[in-house]
Amino acid sequence: GPPAEGEAARPAFADEAVQTLLRRMTGLDLQKVFRPVKTELKPPKYKLMTEAQLEEATRKAIEEAKEKLVMPPVLNEREPIDDVLAEDKFLEGTETTKYVFTDLTYSIPHRERFIVVREPNGVLRKATWEERDRMIQIFFPKEGRRVIPPVVFKDEHLVTVFQQDRHEDILNMCIAQFEPDSPDYIRVHHRTYDDIEKHAKYDLLRSTRHFGGMVWYLVNRKKTDGLLTDMIHRDLLDDATSLITLYHMLHPECQSAKEAKERKLQGVDLIKVFVKTESQKEGYIQLALQAYEEAMATSTAS
Amino acid sequence: ALLAGSHLLKGYRGGHVVIRFALGGCTNRPFFRIVAAHSRRARDGKYLEQLGCLDPLPNAHGERVAGLNLERLRHWLGCGAQLSRPAEKLLGLAGFLPLHPMTVTGAERLRRRAREVAAPPAAGSSGAGDAP
């Protein structure tokens, strides 16, 4: 399977360098970040501003957009809990259903809350992660989260969502519903990223907070060819170089990483070396690069 | 003895704080609130503080849900509150207090009754066959 993230020698998702690269690749398209979310309709407000005021407003908008683009954490799957606190076998047969006891003390964090289950066979055990999430949602409800996860997160229904191109919406719902280290969260995210990579719909997530997670997933599994082609087609050479730098950070033992470090390559040369050694779909990327260079040549010539 | 003036402020003679179940809900649908109240108050009347709840009917996942505010429970027990027998049994099942002896006795009685129901028909049928 894919290697676990967060070991001491390898860079983790939350490292500053990795985050900077991912943030640069996400981009900052204000039109997309602040596109109308379905709220109640209000007539548009027009303001008359000087140039300086407009710059000030744009600067504030960029800061707010940066808030919105904070990436959700990428964690390993959580270990299942099975811890027995007491065994009282003589209670067998007195009850028919189990009891779930939740500690409702307000000041303790949800991760440390005591949630225990007394089974009909008398065993007193700690609750499983699913039981924990359900109980915490019943007694301390969170906005946007349901007690029983909606049916749309099952694999057969995710297909329908992907056909309607609503990857960003389903990922937002997933973040609201599940904890970042739950297996459902990880499964939904991986399915979404796989579907985007299969149909090359990278632009759906660009300039959203999910782009960084998608790039991290693809680079860890070395499936970066489609993304690289897409970036070159859209003339985003800086993003392409950031992607390859990230790849070298995560896989320092690969040949292109060693060559790049020796010869200290920059820009288009870095991409060419990477394409020659690491990529599977060399042909497509070479074509895209050629098209880009021709476009550059004609634009500088004219 | 009622204080002169206010109808709302009831003064009692004696009594102590108890932690017990207050019944609520609708017909054929009980719901208990675990409550710290004066012993002389009505079962469902004004209480000092709600310390949790218990739903005696099993939910869709086959579990009976109970919530207990352990921090406030400890506070009231520290203030010298007493517990009603069902409250003690529930806390024993939860593991907060040791198991109530009546829970153990109840389990033993159930098992003895089950054995008697199984054994006498066997003894009775063999005895009737043996008897002339």
UniProtKB/TrEMBL annotation, chain A:
Keyword Magnesium part of the UniProt annotation = no
Kindly list the GO molecular function terms attached to this UniProt entry.
Answer: structural constituent of ribosome
The keyword Ribosomal protein appears for this protein: yes
Q: Pfam families of this UniProt entry?
A: MRP-S22
One GO CC term on file: mitochondrial small ribosomal subunit
Q: Which UniProt keywords apply?
A: Ribonucleoprotein, Ribosomal protein
* PANTHER family hit by this protein: MITOCHONDRIAL 28S RIBOSOMAL PROTEIN S22, SMALL RIBOSOMAL SUBUNIT PROTEIN MS22
Q: What is this protein called?
A: 28S ribosomal protein S22, mitochondrial
Say which species the protein is native to. Eudyptula minor (Little blue penguin)
TrEMBL record, chain B:
Compartments reported by the entry: Mitochondrion
GO biological processes: mitochondrial translation
Give the domain of life: Eukaryota
Q: Which InterPro entries match?
A: Ribosomal_bS16, Ribosomal_bS16_dom_sf
Could you tell me the keywords of this UniProt record? Mitochondrion, Ribonucleoprotein, Ribosomal protein
- GO MF annotation terms: structural constituent of ribosome
Its cellular-component GO annotations read: mitochondrial inner membrane; mitochondrial small ribosomal subunit
Q: Which PANTHER family match?
A: 30S RIBOSOMAL PROTEIN S16 (PTHR12919), SMALL RIBOSOMAL SUBUNIT PROTEIN BS16M (PTHR12919:SF20)
- What family classification does the UniProt entry report for this protein? Belongs to the bacterial ribosomal protein bS16 family.
Q: Which HAMAP family match?
A: Ribosomal_bS16 (MF_00385)
**The protein's name:** Small ribosomal subunit protein bS16m
In the record, what lineage is assigned to the organism producing the protein?
A: Eukaryota, Metazoa, Chordata, Craniata, Vertebrata
